[in-house]
Amino acid sequence: MRLGHYRWGVYAFFDYDGEPIYVGQTNEMLRTRIRRHLTNQRTDAVAMSVLDPFEVYEIAVWPLPQFQTTLGREPVARQHLDALERLITQQAIDGSKFKAILNEKDPPPGELTVEAPSSYRARIVSDRVFELRSHPDFRIARRALIISRLAQVISERKVQGGLRRVLLTQAKRLQWLTDRRYEALGGQASVAVEADDEV
């Protein structure tokens, strides 16, 4: 079976630095759910500016083929899926230089623990898209735009703490990008000295 045809599984998105940025689960088909995120089709994560599809460079998936013919409300399968999402989410957070990802909500709680099945990870952008979107100045501008949109969403409605956590994480990621770009271009030595005004 082709990987995207698996119904049950967990997926994770990574940015152009290999940084984990978002973890999700599905029982409708991995291909369908991931496509909705990347094409902004009815996903709250994109609509609320939690996740920017332009940031996604690689995707990893952990399919659960043993539940392929299982109905979506089956308790055992649901508990296993939730447990796997908790595991992958924690691994993503532990592997992040910011110790945070962009999920607005935490995974469903539960006592069950599972081992991660085999995963598959691949780049999803063409060489041309990589050339355009990986440039530091483009990424900084895009990150600032998403932060502005997210801050506007927060200012216009009553929101839970998860959106504010995402805003904080995005701000940290923007600072890290701008720090790295500034230093790469010479840092303080690149700043012009203001000349005295002539009298």
Task: Annotate the secondary structure layout.
Blueprint: E1 9-14, E2 20-26, H1 30-38, H2 44-47, E3 58-63, H3 75-95, E4 120-123, H4 127-133, H5 136-156, H6 161-184
Helix pairs in contact: 5-6
Number of strands: 4
Low-confidence stretches: none
What is the count of DSSP helices, taking H or I runs of 4+ residues?
6
Count of individual domains:
1
Order of helices and strands: EEHHEHEHHH
Main beta sheet strand tally, sense and closure: 4 strands, antiparallel
Percent strand equals: 5-15%
Protein structure class = alpha+beta
First and last CA, distance: 79 Å
In short:
The chain is built from 6 helices and 4 strands; from the N terminus they run ββααβαβααα. By secondary structure, the protein is an alpha+beta fold.
Characterise this structure.
The protein is α+β, with helices and mostly antiparallel strands and 199 residues long. It has one domain. The chain is built from six helices and four strands, in the order ββααβαβααα. Strands 2-1-3-4 form a four-stranded antiparallel β-sheet, sandwiched between helices. The longest helix is centred in the last third of the chain and has 24 residues, at 161-184. The chain starts with 8 loop residues before the first strand and ends in a 15-residue tail after the last helix. The model has no long low-confidence stretch (mean pLDDT 92).
